Amino acid sequence: MAGLTSSTIGRKYAMALSAIFLLIFLVMHLSVNLLSVFGADAYNNASQFMGYNPLIQFVMQPVLIFAVVFHFVMGFVLEIKNQKARPVKYEANNPSHNSTWMSRNMIISGAVVLAFIFLHMYDFWFHEMNYKYLDGLPIEESRFWGDLHAKFADAWRVILYIISFILLGLHLGHGFQSSFQSIGARHPKYTPVIMALGKWYSILIPAGFIFIAIYHFVTQ
């Protein structure tokens, strides 16, 4: 890992791999959460399995936490090094024509998304850890749907989630393509496909989470 992150190219490659891992996780996370729309039992069963499966809890969960921390730390490191490498911008450079606003401000959207992740962990992950390991309460298979449903009873939280997912979509719109580009997946034949997939991914994934939040709010 130290060798991989010792150079700029290595850091970008490592960051891209962590990004791809998180892209896959978002699909899985959305798939489970969508079950809450179709019925409490389906969501409770899936959540109970995910919440008490040793492989998921003690192997996959630590890997996920590491990937999130690594991805954002590496993003900030790369941004700082890029700023130091070019302390004075070229006068002839026209950012609005040479790149998109999101590509120039990934650090901003990334910081907002990171703040949202902390809120999301406070709402769900810390609550779950407290329930299982601090309070040591018995397994209650029917509690998961109710916990999720109750979180979206307040309009301010729903609005905050919607704004955060919109920013996540903007972040994904550039990050999806950039991740594959960083690992060398560039080809005249495949790059347009990757760009199209990235566009739809950055729309559908956030839209799915927004739909879930709104659904639970209006069905209180």
Automatic annotation (TrEMBL):
InterPro entries linked: Cytochrome_b-558, SQR/QFR_C/D
Keywords on record: Membrane, Transmembrane, Transmembrane helix
GO cellular component: membrane
Transmembrane intervals: 55-80, 101-122, 158-176, 197-218
Signal sequence, renumbered to the chain: none
Domain of life: Bacteria
Official protein name in the record: Succinate dehydrogenase cytochrome b subunit
Organism: Chryseobacterium cheonjiense
